[in-house]
Amino acid sequence: MSSVGHAARDSVTLFRRNLKRAIRYPSVVITIVLMPVLFLLLFTYAFGGALGAGIGAPGSGSGSPGDGTYIDYVAPGIILMTVATGCVGSALSVCMDVTEGIVNRFRTLPISRASFLTGHVLGNLVQTILGTAAVTAVALAVGFRPNATPVEWLAALGLLSFLALALAWLSAGMGLAAKTVESASNLPMPITFLPFLGSAVVPTESMPSWLRRFAEHQPFTPLNETLRGLLTGTGIGHDGWVSLAWCTGIGLTGYLWARARFRRSTHP
Amino acid sequence: MPMTSTRPPATVTVRGLTKSYADRQVLRGIDLDIPAGSVLALLGPNGAGKTTTVQILSSLVAADSGTARLAGHDLTREPDAVRGLIGVTGQFAAVDNLLSAEENLMLMADLHHLPRHEGRRRTAGLLDRFDLAEAARRPAATYSGGMRRKLDLAMTLVGDPRVIFLDEPTTGLDPRSRRTMWEIIRSLVADDGVTVLLTTQYLEEADRLADRVAVLDGGRIVAEGTAEELKRLVPGGHIALRFTDAAALDLAAACFPDPRRDDGELTLQIPSDGTVPTLRAVLDLLDGAGVTPAALSQHSPDLDDVFLTLTGHRRQETHR
């Protein structure tokens, strides 16, 4: 049996199933899009003036309210937040299959062990990318003016997809660890809010020193700086490499953890 | 429309299966032999180890020790060969609620790597056979419990399994759905030549479906044989008489050498072989004593009695 071929085929079969489920039960995608859009509108129209003035928004000397510059600062952070929120879908869909018992049906089939999780992760990846595209479109509609070249756009897409993939694996592990669908939707919550404790909304320099120390060493700050750099031309420095390292680490940890959890109760 | 299989029927041989969870020993050495194309019912109360046995044999859980061979394939050494032979329908219907019956069946066909046209052919055949054709395009979430269980079993059959494990296949079903399920299970054996291991806590179900019954209690097989053989293990049947007052009960009790009496219920149980002459003799004796029972019932031994005798305790659920 060509096991790699079968594994790929089974993964694609289950991936297609998960997409079909996502279309029938779109509330996950809607949540993925809705929350960041709300934050985007809030930060642009309600707090944007004060925050923009406070941080001296990039691209303008004064950052005066209403000149559309604070949105250029915050939009990459909101886009990043969409990716962070999107991974909840992976925990949810994995946990639903486990609690509804259909996972045992897949386990008793002569299919590759990895395809169940791979199918969920790929399904989640597509949903997150679509959700992120939707949020980016809203950001552009309300005044986000990136100056990225097509190559920079592609690089941004690549970075966000890599992050989405890494988080989807981590979240899949959480979905296996969760006992109920409710806790599966709560476990990845901290990931959703991590961008706020980084440089998404305000630069880390403006934070009290204890929070600043955390903010500067958590993965979303270099990711945010990289994305902002790619889209709006601010300096990236070595944040790009740090981001890729974080994504690799998160993805690898998530993958190994999810795989081990999935195998634990299965026949060797 | 049975799917005639090209694969030969399979035997199941299990030796010395044990399994513990933490400090709780669930299985204490299970031996089973299921001849090809027959039905073995694993009968036992909740917690006896039925589901664990099915989980081990269907490759979901590893046993601590013991061996199992299905159609000659060793479960531990060739799990994928075993998975290619088996079908499992658990206690809770494992269907995708957001997909329709047709999509659920096609999903199984794809996972069994069947060519598209063959998948469609089997799906159509199974929808027809299980009377699901009308609802084939509705999401499974809208189905009744009986329909979901049928879809679940149909999904199990897509891969043309030679051995099917049915874990409490009718638990929670209404009587009509239960009967439909029984007919389907019988047809699996008769038409498809499938070997079936079914677990149940309903003695009636074991009696009706199984060629052989193994009684599982506390992780051990405490008896094994045909339903008739098991029934012979227990004391015979009896005639139950109920009276309106204690005086009548006393009078009647004096007529028989060794009656079992219950003063609270005002009943008397007289051993009987279930034949008409015995019944007539009992009634003649009562007539002679001048008492008329308020109610009379004939009780022949069933698997309930077997169970009670063998395990020393009642089942958790009352007999329906």
TrEMBL record, chain A:
Superkingdom assignment: Bacteria
A GO MF term: ABC-type transporter activity
Cell membrane among keywords: yes
Membrane-spanning residues: 25-53, 73-95, 116-141, 153-172, 184-202, 240-258
UniProt keyword annotations, A-Z: Antibiotic resistance, Cell membrane, Membrane, Transmembrane, Transmembrane helix, Transport
BP GO terms, sorted: response to antibiotic
Membrane topology: Multi-pass membrane protein
Entry keyword Metal-binding: no
GO cellular component: ATP-binding cassette (ABC) transporter complex
Protein location: Cell membrane; Membrane
Domain ABC transmembrane type-2: 27-265
Family affiliation: Belongs to the ABC-2 integral membrane protein family.
Protein name listed in UniProt: Transport permease protein
Protein source organism: Streptomyces chumphonensis
